[in-house]
Amino acid sequence: MGKRKHNTAEARKEARRTEYFAKLNNVPTSPRKMRLVADMIRGMEAFRALGVLKFSNKEAAAKVEKLLKSAIANWEQKTGRLAENGELYVTSVSVDSAAMLKRMRPAPQGRGYRVRKRSNHVTLFVDTKNNEIQN
Length: 135
Description:
The chain is an alpha+beta fold. The chain has a single domain (21-134), classed as CATH 3.90.470.10. The protein has helices at residues 3-16, 31-41, 46-54, 59-79, 129-134; strands at 20-27, 88-97, 101-106, 112-117, 120-128. A three-stranded antiparallel β-sheet has the order 1-5-2. A two-stranded antiparallel sheet has the order 3-4. The radius of gyration is 19 Å and the shape is flat.
């Protein structure tokens, strides 16, 4: 690896040390369905978001709830403090599409219709409100 590439990689790693996030890859849900759940909790206080996700009827909510718990645990581990109620916020949630499984479904007159089974990647960032103002 060249020196310039090495330096930019090190700078990126250093910037990531101050960010508190969790990532979930290859979730077998369509990105559109997952974005509906992500939009519900974006910008919300973390423990309130956990309550919203717990009582949501959507299947994707259970996966995002587990991801949010992981992000809170990552924040606690990196800062060395326990998360208090009202301190931690969901700063951003991004849902990107992942690999698509392509299948064929029988159709009339010997044809086949393509079925696209979509999946997604979810990245969830948490931080304190006063830390956001400093950045």
